[in-house]
Each structure stands twice: as C-alpha cells, then as structure tokens.
Amino acid sequence: MALRLFGRGGAPEPAAPAPVVERKSSATGRVVALASGSGRVAWSPRDTASLTRAGFTNNPVGFRTVKLIAEAAAAVPLVCQDADRRYEVHPVLDLLRRPNLGQGRAELFEALYGQLLLTGNGYLEAVGENDGGLPDELHVLRADRMALVPGEDGWPVAFEYQVGGRKTRFDMTGSPDPICHIKAFHPQDDHYGLSPMQAAGVAVDVHNSASAWSKALLDNAARPSGAMVYKGADGQGVMSPEQFERLQSEIEMHHQGARNAGRPMLLEGGLDWKPMGFSPSDMEFHQTKDAAAREIALAFGVPPMLLGIPGDLTYANYAEANRAFYRLTVLPLATRVSAAVAWWLSEHLGAEVDLKPDLDQIPALSDERDQHWRRVAAADFLTPAEKRAALGLPPLAPDLLPTAEG
C-alpha cells in the first residue's frame, strides 16, 4: 500500500509483498538509462515554480487559459464500459465520484489537468485498497515536488515526492503501480513531458513586460506628460543640487500619480514646461501586448475569441470557436487522460475497463451529435448492431436483444 500522504489518519499498514512482474523493455532502454543515470533522480529541465508564477499566477491570459481548459475538461461526463456493456453503476465510477474526503470528481480532474497544462506532467496517487482491489482514495500530487528515478532499462523504478526536507519514495517495480504518471509529449526528454507554458514562455515574458510598462505609465500620469527645462539668469541650464532635490520632491509629492492627475503646477522663474505626447512606438505597444496574448492562447489551443482578445477573425462566431475549442483541445486532452486513468485503475481492479468522454452530454457539440445520429439512423444498409458500433456504443446484452415475437 502506498504511504498515506493526505489520506485518513492512522499509521500506514505494512505493504504486502508485491508480485514479480515481467517487464519487457526497448532495445534503447539501457542507452536511455545510461544517459539519465540509473538509480539517480532525473530532474525536470525547467524551474516549474517560477514558470507557473510568471505564466499563471501573475498573468491574466495564462490564468484564464489554463482555467478554461481544466474546468471544461473536468466537467466532461465520463462513461465506463468494457468490451461487453456500458455501466451505469460501477466501482470505478463510485471511486471517481468521491475520490477523497476533500475533493469530488470535478475538483480532482481539474487539479490533474491544471498540473498537466502547467508542468507537462500529472501524478495520481493510490491510497489504500478496498475489498475489490481499487484504492480507497485518489490524490493529485504536485508535479514540481515529484522526481522520477529511472532503472537500468530506462523505465521508472520509483518516484520521490519531496516536501521541505522530507522525502517519500513510491516503488514502481511491483503491481499495481501506486502512482499514475501522465505526461505530455516531449521530443527531447525521456521522462518528463513538455508543458504548453514552456512553449509560451517568451510570449508570457513579453505580455508581463507590457503590463509592467502600462503600470509605470499609470504611475506617471498615464503618459510621458512632459519635461521641465531650466534656464538660469546667466543662461546656464544647470541647477544646484539643493534646487534639483527640492523640485524632484515637490513633483513626487504634489504632481505624480493617479491621485494628483490634472493638478495645476506652479513654476518659479527659470522653469519652462515642455509637454510631450505618445510616440508612434508607444501607440503600437498595446498591439504588441495583444499579439503576445494571442501567442499564449495559441500555445494552449484556445481560440483568442474565447478569451476576449481583439483582432482575431479566425472563426465566424463565438459558437464556432467554442466547438473548435472542444474538438481540438478539450476532448483530445480528456480522452488521453481518462484512458490512462482507466488503464491504471484496471490494474488495481484486476479487470479491464475503459473510461472515455460522453460526447452525447456535451452541450457545445449538440448540433454535431444530432447530425451524426440522424445520418446513422438513416443508413438502412446498417444493422442495429453496426449502428451501435458506429455511435461508439457497446453491443446489447443478450437479454436485451429484440426477439422475433417483439
């Protein structure tokens, strides 16, 4: 049994001896293990904490993009079925309905999708084991605290979860696995996934810098308002240190910032005010910020129209953009994650089950669903069994098949 990090109180029970499982490995596994260092922790290549802070916590476009995808994918209904039938009631569905004491299904999957989008890696921990073999609880672990330990064949032999100075080691050599690791595709890393936030890192920096620039303008009367030119009695333009400090102090106290916007200025002899306006580069800076916002949305696969970013005419209307968002971003992510979770839970259950999004219950795809159902229903050359297969439905149970009398 996995160590209880967040589960119910009480000391953990001693783990039962894990059965010996034969693992087949790739011919390149030993080369991967040699490159990464067998038995040593393979660290993530980027500082995910600072990347998350810059692109999610301190960036409204990144925050809304990740939340939009994670909440939409977590709200997608899931169906549980095997090769014979679809289940309305199943132990896997019961576990996902309330995976732990503090989270429901939507909260658990939102956290899992959020970790996957921000770091490229998602980790689920199985805590305890009930009579049916399924875990008592499921918990999402923070990816920035998890480290993978590769073995001699390149496959992970353990995961190390570190909080402060404490480490918890999860053994991955037995069966079933205590950790489900879901990772995004990374062409240059054998153990960790590539986050969309990493691909959008430059755009995030540009957008954050543009926001800081706009904030500095607001702090200085929202525009480069002008300059003071000093001309002394002798025609020299040099002020004494005392005069300069006094003038600077009066400007900061009485004429700078939003509170003093529009306040008249009293100039003494020798001072002349030269107003300034926006330069062409200043006027184009806002367009640069919008372009960076579109690049962030592009990296995550969210139509800019859904984020309120102006200047995007790719889609004819909001409904079309919303359908493209579900088809191209939400459903591929939800399908891949639910399939990985189903395979992992099947290992615990001892019987193979499948979890997949229920397309019939997604409002954004209702028009496409109706058209598809009408086309299949009108296909007279298909048998009822073939129509069910075309709609992604399992075969009917023998006791539910129509009889000759019916």
Structural features, described:
Residues 1-22 are annotated as: Disordered. It comes from Paracoccus suum. It holds the Pfam family Phage_portal. InterPro entries: Phage/GTA_portal, Portal_HK97. This is Phage portal protein. 40% of the residues lie in helices and 14% in strands. It has a three-stranded antiparallel β-sheet with strand order 2-1-11. A three-stranded antiparallel β-sheet has the order 4-3-8. Strands 5-6-7 form a three-stranded antiparallel β-sheet, with no helix packed on it. Helix 3 (60-74) packs across helix 5, helix 3 (60-74) packs parallel to helix 9 (280-300) and helix 7 (201-219) packs antiparallel against helix 9. It folds into three domains: 1-214 and 279-360, no CATH class; 225-276; 362-397, no CATH class. The relative contact order is 0.13. The protein is elongated, with a radius of gyration of 30 Å. It is α+β, with helices and mostly antiparallel strands and 406 residues long. The longest helix is centred in the last third of the chain and has 32 residues, at 318-349. A hairpin with a 2-residue loop joins strand 6 and strand 7 (166-171).
